[in-house]
Amino acid sequence: MSPLQSILSSSRTMRFEQVVRAYANDLFRYLYWLCRDRALAEDLVQETFARAWAAWEDQRDERAAKAWLYTIARNEHARTYEKKRVDIDPDADLDAILARDTPDPGLAIDLRKAFGQLPEAFREPLLLQVLGGLASSEIAAALGTTEEAVNMRISRARKALRNLLEGAPARERTRETRP
Amino acid sequence: MNCLDFRRGVFANPLQLDAAAREHALACAACAEFLERQRELDTKLYDAIRIPVTDGLADRILVAHNLRRRGRQWLWALAATVVLGAGIAGLAPTLYGHALGREAIAHVQEEPQSFSIVARHASDLLPAALAAQRVKVAAAIGEVTYAQICPMKDFKARHLVVATEHGPVTMLLMPEDHGWRRRSVTAAHGMIAITIPVAKGSIAIVAANEAQALAVERSLVLS
């Protein structure tokens, strides 16, 4: 390898490392909410970055790289489901949420339950917008649909979430969630 | 815009309102409250779905793909020494710029209410604050919806949220920053910060994406 090739290779590696550090955690969270299994989510993040590295191009700007990674992650998740059936326990993550240092863990549980009750077609675009910070056009590209359809699904998701939360009986949240 | 259209827009994305929607929020108290409640709910939803991640995930990914090289460490150490020795004058300002960018992003994330509060401020607030740093505004950036004086690590910053035509953008004006910096673009936690050294101190522009931040930067004229 010539010195120039060595420098270019090093720059490519550094750029990729920056992207891994910037997005690994949120990709893990996104995948977790798709599969509800921490170990599987971590495997899928590993696979996502393996595929990304294999097809890495230095000219990708930060924003394009992010949307691209979410698309790869989504495809990896879909591929896993093609291979095997993954059972989801909707309350399996309760401990994880309780373990977080949230100002109102009771509300976090209510939100998580309400979020889990949303149809997947509504939940996923909302997840990509709120957690991933993707624009409607990027979500549409990742989901293979139109921007209008994405906005409609997200609107319905938020409306349903608000109805679920505001319709739920008030309760003493913090006392209920801590022994 | 009527209330129904406004609320549809809020449900689609409460952080990306167009100019007509922002105008409607200023004129309609009920819709402004609706927007604020939705932004609060989004903040809480964001907190709820950000489950904890096991420490070192990024390191494990890099090691698994052999991107953190464990061999030839002496060679890398030598190369790093040479690079640092020869290029510190050129590199250090960039590194300090990135450090400020990361601090700016962390600050914005610690103050989520800055996006949920929509208040009317004097129209010359932003140009006047920028003029104090000897920066002019070439083109209107947008209305200031949030203004606070906030403590940063080493100095205070004027924390402004500006409703631009591309969405809300945070500007941290730091006239007391005397750091040795160069213009830097920093990405962290899904946000972008552009830090710019100006005649008096620095400015950090924090946005959801680089295009938003660049649009604001292009509106500034540095002396």
Entry summary:
The complex is a heterodimer of chains A (179) and B (223). Chain A is mainly α and 179 residues long.
Key phrases:
heterodimer; A: 179 residues; mainly alpha; Rna Polymerase Sigma Factor, Chain: A; Arc Repressor Mutant, subunit A; globular; disordered C terminus; B: 223 residues; alpha+beta; Protein Transport Mog1p, Chain A; two-stranded antiparallel ribbon; 8 helices
Give a written overview of the molecule:
- The complex is a heterodimer of chains A (179) and B (223).
- Chain A is mostly helical and 179 residues long.
- In chain A, 76% of the residues lie in helices and 0% in strands.
- In chain A, α7 (136-143) packs across α8.
- The mean pLDDT of chain B is 83.
CATH class (first level) name of the largest domain in chain A: Mainly Alpha
Low-confidence region ranges of chain A: 94-100, 169-179
CATH topology of the largest domain in chain A: Arc Repressor Mutant, subunit A
**Tally of separate helices of chain B:** 8
- How many β-strand stretches of chain B? 8
Q: Work out the strand percent of chain B.
A: 15-25%
The percentage of residues in β strands of chain A lies in under 5%
Counted up, domains of chain B total 2
Largest interface (CB within 8 Å) is between: A-B, 57 and 39 residues
Which fold name is given in CATH as the topology of the largest domain in chain B?
Protein Transport Mog1p, Chain A
What is the highest CATH level, the class of the largest domain in chain B?
Alpha Beta
C-alpha termini separation of chain B: 40 Å
Shape of chain B: globular
